[in-house]
Structure formats: structure tokens, C-alpha cells
Amino acid sequence: MSGHWRLVVRNMIWIVALTIPIGGAIFYAYGEAHAGGFLFGVGMGILSLVSMAYAVSLLTGGSRLVRVIGAVSFVVRYGFVVVALGVPAYLGLWPVVGMLGGFAGVYLVENIVLLPGMMRAVGEARV
After folding, report:
1. CA 3 from chain center: how many Å?
2. For residue 63, is it left (φ>0), alpha (ψ between -120 and 50) or beta?
3. What pLDDT tens digit does each residue of the chain (127 aa) get?
4. Sign of CA pseudo-dihedral 20, 22, 24, 30
5. Does the CA dihedral 18-95-103-55 come out positive or negative?
6. Which of 36, 65, 74, 122 is placed for a possible disulfide with 55 were both Cys, Cβ 3.0 to 4.6 Å?
7. 55 CB contacts (<8 Å, ≥6 apart)?
């Protein structure tokens, strides 16, 4: 397993470890719908994180075609996020604040845990 995939797996473990008590607290305080929205947002955030790691794998691939596919998949990732969060919000399937809070929480943990680890991995690779 490559270095950036190990970082992604470690980040997903952090996210799940933090999601369980936070989701439980939201369930206790606000009820099932808000906790479900939060968990949906976290799930979409994790899918987005994995798709980002896949795009990075393609962008660092050998051939030009693979790098182009990686660039396109990176852009498609944002379309996925818009649809995955926008449609349930528009249809009123989940409470929007919980859903967006879960998704934003994944990005926060991603920036706190994943980026410093990636910087260390890049620094070690250059040595």
C-alpha cells in the first residue's frame, strides 16, 4: 500500500472514531433525523476523501492519459459532492445543518490529520 493510501486509511479511522460519539450526542440532543443527516454527511465526506485519493493516484500515474483521467476525476468529484448533498437538501430528506456539518467535519479532520502527514511523507520522499 502506498504512503498516501496509508494516510487516507488512517484518516478514515480518525473520522469514524470521532463520528461515533459525535453522532451519538447529536442523536441524544436532536433526535434521529439530525443524527441521520450528520451520518449521511460524514459518509459523503468519506466517499469524497477516497475519490480524492484515487484522483491523486491517477494524477501521479505514468502515462499522460492516466493523468488526464485523474484531472477529470478530480473535477467530477466536486460535481458528486454538489449532487450528493444538494439533492437531499433540496428534497428535504435530511436536516441540512447536520448533513453539512458532518461533511464539513470530514474536511476539517482531513486538513488536521491528512495534510500534515502528507507533508511529512513528501519531505521524507525528497531526502
Report:
1. 18
2. beta
3. 677 788 888 888 888 998 999 999 999 999 999 999 999 999 999 998 888 888 878 877 778 888 888 888 878 888 888 898 888 888 888 788 888 889 988 888 877 776 776 666 656 555 4
4. negative
5. positive
6. 74
7. 70, 71, 73, 74, 77
DSSP string, 12-71: HHHHHHHHHHHHHHHHHHH-HHHHHHHHHHHHHHHHHHHHHHHHHHHHTSSSHHHHHHHH
What confidence score (pLDDT) does residue 121 get? 61
The three three-digit cell numbers of residue 80, written as one number: 458528486
User: Residue 35: what pLDDT?
Assistant: 93
Residue 19: which of 40, 48, 4, 49 has the closest Cα?
40
